[in-house]
Amino acid sequence: MTVAFLILAALTTAGMAAAMGLRNLVHCVLALTLGFAGLAALYLQLGAQFVGFTQILVYVGAVAILAVFAIMMTQSAGSMTRPVFSSAWLTGSLVAGSVFAVLAWAICSSAASRKMLPPEPQATVHQIGDALMHRFVLPLEIIGLLLTVALIGAVVLAMHGKRETQ
Amino acid sequence: MSSLTSYLLLSALLFSIGLAGALTRRSAILVLIGIELMLNAANLNLLAFWRYGPNPAALTGIMFTIFSISVAAAEAAVGLGLILAVYRHSRTTDLDKMNSMKG
Fold it and tell me: Would you call A159 helix, strand, or coil by DSSP?
């Protein structure tokens, strides 16, 4: 466990906790961007360069912007007088806390994490592309189909109905 | 504490933060963001197991993470579209007010 890991873990945790706890929704999305960037840096620490840059492109670039657009289109940025947590907040926090307790207990008592440190594996973009085109070509095609369906579905859902407006 | 354990503990913490947000927030957009956080925690788990696993040359952890990121992006787009559709219908994104089907 290095100093870089500790700093990145603290940054990511702080960003995500702020994203879930702040009152103003735009501030939440800004903190969420910080958390996603910290996660991308953690991926780079793990030696997965391609996934780290994909994380920055997809999450910091696209998902955060999409969330900001949704907040602006639903005009829920300025509503700060009402309580931010729902009526079932106590049950929700209890469930989340117990889930974390169970997960931490399982991780700390597991034998899988007491192994020697293997040498850093290599995952170049060339190898990833090779695997995507040979071994994982069917999942790649299915993901392409899924993204097309999701694109059309999101447009149909968010589009104003023509028959209602005319 | 080994490196794998610390990564797994961080991933469990991020998952719990996302779960707490998804269960306690009133805004539907933030509930969706909490679900995204849980997916990200799972991705960190997959990458940690790829890095410290017995056979990293097979690249399965990286492949699973890439596909998971694609599915999460599609889910975010469709989820925000659904929130916009619900907002046009009921003029609110407050989950406590969406109780018209409550018995």
Answer: coil
B67 is a domain residue: yes
Phi-psi region of A82 (alpha: psi -120 to 50; beta: other; left: phi over 0): beta
Nearest alpha carbon to residue A16 among A8, A75, A110: A8
Is the CB of residue B62 less than 8 Å from the CB of residue B50? yes
- Joined together, the tokens standing for residue A116 give 């020697």
User: What's A1-79's CATH class?
Assistant: mainly alpha
The answer on pLDDT for A156 being more than 70 is yes
ipTM comes to 0.90
Q: Which residues contact B28 (CB under 8 A, 6 or more apart)?
A: B83, B86, B93, B94, B95, B98
Distance CA(A32)–CA(B40), nearest Å, equals: 12
Residues of chain A in contact with residue B87, where contact means CB-CB under 8 angstroms, are: 73-74
**Nearest CA-CA distance, residue A108 and chain B, Å:** 7
- Cross-chain Cβ contact B15/A118 below 8 Å: no
Q: How far apart are CA A52 and CA A66, in angstroms?
A: 20
- Nearest CB partner across the interface for B23, out of A92, A149, A157: A92
B29 → closest Cβ in A17, A25, A43:
A25
CATH number reported for the structural domain that contains residue B27 in this entry: 1.10.287.3510
Q: What is d(CA A53, CA A46) in angstroms, rounded to the nearest whole number?
A: 13
The DSSP secondary-structure symbol of A39 reads H
pLDDT in tens, B29-40: 999 999 999 999
